[in-house]
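Quick review question:
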């Protein structure tokens, strides 16, 4: 039986580990016309060392990365932008291996993101990317090479971006108004304003001719 990770060992509250990864592909066949992307398993590849070594049972939050020069050509090649992918959940197990990478399964708990099945391809580097004492990794393949990890990467995140809150995640305006707001009838709409006869206020049309004269 796998040794379950207990985040409370690191404090009174369970720790959620931030993982920087890039979206790689869909599991299996590519997305075809008519397919529902949310029903597909999404694959992310990790090349940046996470906050702490990963293991089965650990809660993770995925920050998706992209080269900063995509939006700013003057940026350094080592600079990356990161945005909240709204994927927060627990590592449920090991799906397999791909070369020197261990493939971890994550069940997404984000209430706002319909994608629920995630796989993380993580270079197998004990005590760097994964826990060395994790029994699920026993009989593992070849360890990662130095070039499998991007140690020079500089990741920049937006402080204004909404952070995923897993099962309680919602759009900012919805948290203020409540879901009932969507079902309430609007008391006032454009063109139907109280106090204005027949709902619309007549405005005189003013046209300006080419010679600068005003035509009414």
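Suggested answer, residue by residue:
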């Amino acid at each position: 039986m796998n040794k379950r990770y207990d985040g409370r060992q690191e404090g009174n509250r369970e720790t959620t580990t931030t993982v920087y990864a890039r979206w790689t592909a869909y599991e299996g066949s590519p997305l075809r016309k008519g397919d529902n992307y949310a029903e597909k398993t999404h694959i992310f590849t990790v090349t940046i060392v996470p906050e702490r070594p990963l293991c089965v049972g650990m809660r993770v939050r995925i920050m998706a990365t992209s080269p900063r020069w995509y939006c700013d050509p003057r940026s350094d090649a080592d600079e990356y932008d990161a945005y909240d992918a709204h994927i927060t959940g627990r590592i449920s197990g090991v799906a397999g291996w791909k070369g020197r990478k261990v493939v971890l399964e994550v069940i997404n708990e984000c209430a706002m993101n319909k994608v629920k099945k995630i796989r993380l391809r993580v270079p197998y580097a004990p005590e760097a990317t994964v826990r060395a004492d994790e029994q699920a990794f026993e009989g593992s393949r070849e360890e990662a090479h130095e070039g499998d990890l991007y140690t020079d990467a500089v990741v920049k995140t937006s402080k204004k971006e909404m952070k995923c809150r897993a099962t309680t995640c919602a759009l900012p305006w919805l948290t203020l108004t409540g879901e009932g707001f969507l079902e309430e009838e609007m008391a006032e709409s454009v063109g139907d304003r109280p106090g204005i006869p027949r709902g619309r206020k007549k405005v005189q049309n003013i046209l300006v001719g080419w010679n600068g004269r005003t035509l009414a």
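Why it works: Residues 7-176 form one domain. The chain has one domain: 7-176.
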